[in-house]
């Protein structure tokens, strides 16, 4: 079996090169988001099969239906809100009954704009009777059991005096505790006990203290403080239960910074939803897409949620009519649906639920629900998750390989393969799979285990290599003086006549080599080094240019070859010209602003002095970044402090040399150098602003000329 997994992984690697996602001809596109927030085409996970409306059911038009619920026995309950009724169907879309009234203590009673419902395992129907401001509990036959009215509390202030109880979404857990979402209530979800008594709010949003808001409230007038109250916290939009009794709740307008648009609440109301995917579970993260209606703007508005086994859950985006499905870690698995009039599209999707492995999506404007069936693609994903969660790791790897064969761009498939290989102690193969899946945390774990395995296997060789290195280094240091004298004598013997035109290149080469060697002295003796650099002419322009070129090459090397764990860049989009400009342009700005400003502040340095000193000051970036980049391939996330320490050391080292170089070159004291440096930074910002303004004007002028030319050509 292990050998077969290896073959499967090899097949997946081949498919990564040759395979392309298979997209079926439906009215919407299937896609996921990659590590860099780009939408990536994916095979269709669910396909629309039919639309069920009121006319087909023989109940007349459904008017503004707001909720849909599938019970354990497969019965379908529709809150036909505009008609003040509940429509009950069996799993074959046959009408079972219509509940529009019931007998209550000998009197006829009815519903008024019911917008939410829930059916327990005992087939008790809980209805959020919104405009009657109550929750009604009925039997499966529609007989009245009880009603639960507005919440009452003995604690003053818990329920506001102007509290308007309009329940519109409801769930009931196995302990018969009822959780209700009330319209325009921002304190959380209302919890009622078995006896129907109000127990408090859960899931109340936590508002972190904001020092800026606190300051403005302190200095604001009473009228201004009152106007600040319009900024309301979170309002929940829908609610559902999973198999463990946890509450999944969608948020109308979540925390934009935290992106908490869906939550998983435990019995205490604490959000325990995992958000460990590439991006938080918020629906669309980039909008609009290139293929969609650009008139639909803004982030997703989640209006429905349904929980599935093994931590999988789906949320409904009302704004774009799409269903997004995530795993327990918050990884996006697939999407389907959209806005429009074609099959599989919606005018206003408001609720979603599942009948077996089929999705039912309710459209309030169309007065219907659409049935979606799973494809081989979604079935393979869900099966792989199931096998992994039940401990069948090798079988799970095979299913993930099947998913990857269907969609070579699906990162999670490779993560699934890697997880299975990791549990089989096949660390090197797992590392490669995690790399393909852009999974840096699991790659780090596999790297640590693989490194330990290699060290244990070749421990003697590593000890021998270290011992040889120490001995060789000690020997070379002891022989340094003698060797230096020998090399000097040889050099004198073969030194050519640099006065001739023929050997001028050799002279320049020797001076450049000497200047580069002096850079190693300068970085460790900055004050003496910069003094001799200027006054003793120990440095030169060719050597400075070579150092600048080395810094540029080093920067490109770092961007391209930093270890996978510490390199989150999209290597396919790296542009060598842009990377080169990102080094040379800031350097040019620094040197030009340095000289221009210091000439006004009695600086003693010439443009050449500034250029040489600035270039030499960047030498630590070469000395530190190259070894740090090599080190990044052999350390884990937990050891990343060593890598970042080296990077920070290189930057601070170069920055301090720039400061000292400026001070020595221009014969400033520390105070004057500090002020000059600050002024230079401001000057660089001003130059960048003026440059941006200039290019913007040029672009607009070019566009204007182009439009004039096009108009003239059109007229002629």
Plain-language structure description:
This protein has 716 residues and is of the alpha+beta class. It folds into 3 domains: 2-18 and 385-457, Alpha Horseshoe (Serine Threonine Protein Phosphatase 5, Tetratricopeptide repeat); 31-374, Neuraminidase, CATH 2.120.10; 507-698, no CATH class. Helices cover 43% and strands 19% of the residues. It has 19 helices and 27 strands. The strands form 8 sheets. The chain has a 4-stranded antiparallel beta sheet. A hairpin with a 5-residue loop joins strand 21 and strand 22 (313-317). The longest helix has 46 residues, at 670-715. It is elongated, with a radius of gyration of 35 Å.
Secondary structure layout:
Elements: H1 2-18, E1 31-33, E2 39-41, E3 46-53, H2 54-57, E4 67-70, E5 76-80, E6 85-89, E7 95-99, E8 101-104, E9 107-110, E10 114-119, E11 125-129, E12 134-138, E13 144-148, E14 167-172, E15 178-182, E16 189-192, E17 198-202, H3 211-219, H4 222-227, E18 236-241, E19 247-251, E20 262-265, E21 302-307, E22 313-317, E23 322-326, E24 332-337, E25 349-355, E26 358-363, E27 368-374, H5 376-389, H6 393-406, H7 411-423, H8 427-436, H9 440-457, H10 459-478, H11 480-494, H12 504-522, H13 526-535, H14 541-561, H15 576-598, H16 607-617, H17 619-631, H18 640-665, H19 670-715
Helix pairs in contact: 1-6, 5-6, 6-7, 7-8, 8-9, 12-13, 12-14, 13-18, 14-15, 14-16, 14-17, 15-16, 15-19, 16-18, 17-18, 18-19
Oligomer: single chain
Helix content: 40-55%
State the secondary-structure class.
Answer: alpha+beta
Distance, first to last CA: 75 Å
Short description:
The protein is α+β, with helices and mostly antiparallel strands.
